[in-house]
Amino acid sequence: MAKTAPRGRSLPAHVDVLIVGAGLSGLGVASHLTTKQPGRTFAIVDGRDAIGGTWDLFRYPGLRSDSDMHTFGYAFKPWRNKNAIADGHEILAYLHETIEEYRLASKIHLGHKVTAAAFSTATGLWSVTMERVADRASVEITCNWLFSAAGYYDYSGGHTPELPGRGEFTGEIVHPQSWPEDLDYTDKKVVVIGSGATAVTLIPAMARQAGHITMLQRSPTYVIAVPKQDPIANALSRLLPARTAYRATRAFNINRVRAIYGASQRYPNAVRRLIRSANRRALPDGFDVDTHFNPTYNPWDQRMCTVPDGDLFASLSSGKASIVTDEIVRLTPNGIRLASGDELAADIIVTATGLRMLPYGGIELSVDDVPVDLHNSLAYKAMMVSGVPNFAFALGYTNSSWTLKVDLVAEHLCRLLAHMDRLGQAVAVPVADDDPSKERRPLFDMKAGYLQRSSHLFPQQGSDGPWTMPQVYAVDRDRLRDGPVEDPALRLSTPTAAPVRTEAVPV
């Protein structure tokens, strides 16, 4: 069980920046504000009773990062652990260190779920409504800027497809997002439905205790082995000062991942052959690689799965785990009947079938009493929404480490706030060109099912200028870190300021 962060004192009635979400993104943005905008007030609120977001919510066996921590960690805080692919508890420890080092504990207010936020152009303020989870009381505060660090999925539950015969199955069905603490799978027959990052994490972790575990996939995913400990990073850490070694490793890994992604886009057949060859070497002779590890799509059309030290392949090789590529017909009292006619026996079924997407934590946004139509809006510089003043968000990369984008967005926000201060402006709103000939595209360009199912809930991206949502760190770095803050599409103004409450809200 993760330790909870100390609760903040009393929730302020007003802050300059309200950050929604006390996970990796929210704590990162708060740290940037602390160092780059030291005179600005902010608070972090979260509906849960513990910090960490994803890394506290998920409790399934083997929980770990699927990116190296030298790029998944913050730019400003070196990752000092020897494990480059980190377990969930190691990531939580890193976040608690961040809270302590940047003195964020008093800024964190847990158990406050934001339900609605209304912006007034007359006052230049957001009125934010929260539910205090402990007693269901409604609490309202104001802020100049609202920042969504809530990620992009629904914390209330994951996605589980229709499973005919579900009521007939006599065993237990669990989703990784709602993992029971008392689930005993010792010597049990377990079937994990799915082939994504969660499934390839669960299989080797559960295989140690389960009688047998089977990964049941409808279609294969690209899976590549990576070292749990990065030999280059650990060598540099012995030779160089910690921050220098971290920066060097981070730069090297950013470029390495980008090179792999670029090669996958330009030479998909060659990359496919390389991955297939590596899979063959990692698995026993005669293993049917072409059935179980040969996706129909090209490399990086969907996110690749990484397995530290090849642990998934080791589990398959040992016989403790197996993989079946087939389609489900229905559940039976004792397992799963497949399209091939076979039946998989199961005591426990784990539905590692993906996430439910939810933009900005499900906050109901409005501007001057008009609800924001997110899907008809455009993302501006991959961090703001057209027509919505003083609102920013962080959504990480789909083809690289999430936190790379968080750092860039936080840096750009701090630069924008400083720029507005210099000009004496208080409101910033992106204004999109209404030219009907301009192309619009889904915000996420990856073909993963969970993204495709929910693209209608999110803003869209345009075809050029600040309205694109590039999944390219170098492009975002040039635009957000090094590029100008001023932009013709970003309108700055100064409203007639209204009095701001200064008394604290009881907690």
UniProtKB/TrEMBL annotation:
Cofactor(s) the record lists: FAD
Mention any Pfam family matching this sequence. Pyr_redox_3
Membrane-spanning intervals of the chain = none
* Gene3D superfamilies, A to Z: FAD/NAD(P)-binding domain (3.50.50.60)
Give EC number(s), comma-separated.
Answer: 1.14.13.-
Question: GO molecular function terms here?
Answer: monooxygenase activity
Keyword annotations: Monooxygenase, Oxidoreductase
Q: Does the keyword Oxidoreductase apply?
A: yes
Q: Name the family.
A: Belongs to the FAD-binding monooxygenase family.
- Protein name per Swiss-Prot or TrEMBL: Flavin-containing monooxygenase
**Organism, per UniProt?**
Amycolatopsis pigmentata
Q: What is the lineage of its organism?
A: Bacteria, Bacillati, Actinomycetota, Actinomycetes, Pseudonocardiales
